[in-house]
Amino acid sequence: MRLTRPALLLLLLGCVLMFFALGNHHLQGSTESRVAGIAMQMHLSQDWVTPSLLNEPFLEKPPLSLWLDATAIQLSGGQLFAVRLASAIAGLCSIMLLFTMLRRFGRPTAMAWTAAAMLATMGSFWANARQVGEDSLLTLGVSMALLAFYQASRQPRFAAGSWLLFAAGIAIATLSKGVFGLALPGVVIFTYLLCDSLINKRFAVNDWLRPALMTLVGLIPLLIWLCVLYQRGGLQAVSEVVLTNSIGRFSGSFVEAGHYEPFYYYLRKLPESFLPWNLLTFLGLWHFRKQLRSNPYLLFFCVWLLAQYLMLNIASSKRAVYLMSLTPAAAVIAAEYAGVVLQWLRKKSQDSAIAKFLSDYHRSLAIALLAGVVTTYLIAAAVWAPRADRSESFQPVAAQVISLQASGKHIALLQPDERLGAVVFYSQQLPHTLNSAAELQAFLAESPDNIAVIDKTEVPGVALKVLDTVSVGRHHFYFVTLAPASED
């Protein structure tokens, strides 16, 4: 990509949105606490094959994001911003990738820039790209695969560069989210090729074989990791990644995974999914519906949005963050429809003073709107995000653990919740965990300096004394020791 003035301005915009005040608030919610805890434990144990959370293998997803987070922790000395860095960089890369590929598709610079800027300022994309987790990397991988596929499909001959980019996208997506990372681009490519075959009334075998074969190339990194994991944990570990946590989440057979919502869950989320550009996206889908047969470009991005949306509705496990992979397509549709609106205003400008004003000053108005959106996000990052620590951050639990350890106490966690991954991250120590009431009894009886952290005030068969309580929102954590024996 040539660093032209528009590209540099977009890069500056992306850097500001992705990195401003990235580390000014603590880990928030269960996802950030869990992922940061796993990354810190990977760094401390130097086990780069089997991710572990609170001393238990955590094989819900492949470890690409954890490798990057653990590396960032190692390089930064465990700074808070480090575990959010991989997501933010992936978000920035997605923005620049969309701009670059739209230019290669022959779209005008202004249109490509508008679409990329809309992606950067789409609320769900911005928020998720600044959080600890693998979804920003997944979005980058899916976008890379799909945009490279469309570019390659436009070439009459085998486009080696585009297909290598496609394979790299598949590798990133599958190493981030496993089978789910394969299904997201797969359903779009299958649907697009099917529509293309029906519209043109032809079936070209090469159009289907090339993405299938290059997908196999893209799966090589994931297969290498699975082979090494098999040597460590056997078939059970591999099946847990591939079957239990991927296919099981989709089908609903993995009940422990949670996130089960009714079929209309994403319908309720649609109004807020692509804010503040959602109206342009939805109107664009309706407006372009009659052009899809004659315009492969619009067909591809509409299929990207609708095919993934339908697949996510079918899946049993549902979360709003899963819609992040749809945001690049939504941004393109919104930008294209904004161009249609501008053309309509120009036609009406001869008869309407309002249309003429909007048409003549559309650039200044767009800059003012973009500035207002960006300013709102920066205020949210600088002010609102730290305020959410009071109800969302489990750092106070970790702070109490660290304080007690500094005073000579030994701390253990009884059947710890994933939110206590924050304790691992902030203490930068491998945790001592207990799995039963008998282990709790034995640990506390060893020394009066031993203290356990539990999430309930009573444990059957063990008389406990609560020394302190730390509450985070609706969650309560109790620091306990053995109750003194009663005297007759």
UniProtKB/TrEMBL annotation:
Record field: transmembrane: 81-99, 111-129, 135-152, 164-192, 212-230, 297-315, 321-345, 365-385
Any one biological process term the GO annotation gives: lipopolysaccharide biosynthetic process
Residue span(s) of domain Glycosyltransferase RgtA/B/C/D-like: 61-225
Subcellular localization(s) per the UniProt record: Cell membrane
Pfam families (alphabetical): PMT_2
Membrane-related topology note: Multi-pass membrane protein
Molecular-function annotations in GO: pentosyltransferase activity
Keywords: Cell membrane, Glycosyltransferase, Membrane, Transferase, Transmembrane, Transmembrane helix
Chief localization: membrane
GO CC field: plasma membrane
Keyword match Transmembrane: yes
Protein name per UniProt: Phospholipid carrier-dependent glycosyltransferase
Organism of this sequence: Pseudomonas helleri
